[in-house]
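Record minuted for everyone:
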Amino acid sequence: MIAWLLLALYFVIVFISLPKVFAKAGRPAWEGSVPFYNLYVWNKIMGKPWYWLILLLAPGVNLLMLIIYNVNTSIALGKRSLKDHLVMVLVPWVELPKLAYNPKYTWKGPIPIGERKRNLIGQWGDAILFAVIVATAFRTFTFEAFTIPTESMEKSLLVGDYLFVSKLSYGPRLPMTPVTFPFTHHTLPLTTHTPSFTNWFELPYMRLPGFGTPQRGDAVVFNFPEGDTVVANFQNMSYYQLARMSGRENLLKRDRVVFSMPDGRKASRPTGGILVRPVDKQENYIKRCVGISGDTVQVIDGLVHINGTPQPLVPTGQYAYDFVVKDGFNKRILKDQYDITSTDVVEESGTANMPLTRQNAEALKSFGNVVSMTRQNKPKGTYGATDFWPIFPNQPSYDWSEDNFGPLWIPKAGASITLTERNLPLYRRAIIVYEHNDLAVKDGAIWINGVQTDRYTFKQDYYWMMGDNRHRSQDSRFWGFVPYDHVVGKAVLVWLTADPEKGGFPTGIRWKRLFSRVR
């Protein structure tokens, strides 16, 4: 609230100061009182090119642009030291009206490029800040580069792939946490969990028009829905996953996590603290969209069915296979001839497990050392004997597995459902966390925002995302729906790629994949 008051106060200060600034610059004072036109005049007297106005009006980057305009106004009124610049950046509410109304400050004009009166640091500072703003605007509204850190999409997308993700495909999402260190996501460089952002000033979710919405088959980048809370020393999983695995209902009140060791002993490790992240700072995931809002998704023996229709796995997708073998596989041959990563092969006393494409599975089945090969297929009830429930909705009343799941209806904006105690676990998180409602169950009755009801109408669309590497992917089967406001963009191009098993860059460059389309 304080941040919004400061921002409103700043705009009031600008509105009352610009007429005086314009008068000192030899322009009619009334021009400073005309909304939007005053920005055009301000840009002109600063000697800036016309296209700066586009950045000044662009949500998310305009706050940075205003810093440049403030500093350049102080320069034009004779305040040209580094100290003067810092004062204008930190307290424009005080400095701008002082420069406008104090007759001692007269119009000197902007410093021409190359003039020595402006110190080198100041000139470079302006150039660097503007370059940061342009780059930020580009990655916010058009394309952003991402990397593939895990094997969940192999062999469609490979570890070591560098992608361009189109924000235009689904509409650019405006920054919700605009005060952040440039070119970082959620953590400062050279640190393990120091936030690179501050949430003292947040903007509501807004999205500009795009070319469409996520469709079945799209490779979609999105913010991990369960990533709103993370344990600092266990960032490879969400707080909720860790809580389920460690059997601790409320890690927020604990400083250590307790694990069961293979020999039955207990071990513990410090949590390192709890990190809470806003939507646009949650971890970026990339998965295949297999179900859109309004669909009913079901997995039967590993095969996805949408609205009752089977959806074959893409040719580059993989299932995990269990082998009984006479002796171990030659991992060098697997890598060189079949591009099977050595870390994917798990071998133990006459058995092996690895994810394979359909084509590779047919090839390996005929190997002389293979006694038998079976595709992994966990039946419903697999996790019934465990003390935690990894499959969504993570409740013992649902006996689903990753291979036999559902049926489950995916919420659609404007659609209503009848809520019962049976189906409430499926939609509870969407209603409470993603759509910001209070929900309680009292004496078998459901209360939403203080009103007893058995109906709920969803406010936004949701999607079902799964990895093409079906048995090596933490996806919607484990944590549920992806809300539309978590969607970042569509992966469209592999612009660079290198195989980490072959040394990365430059020895491991996959030349045939360079500038290939993401399918």
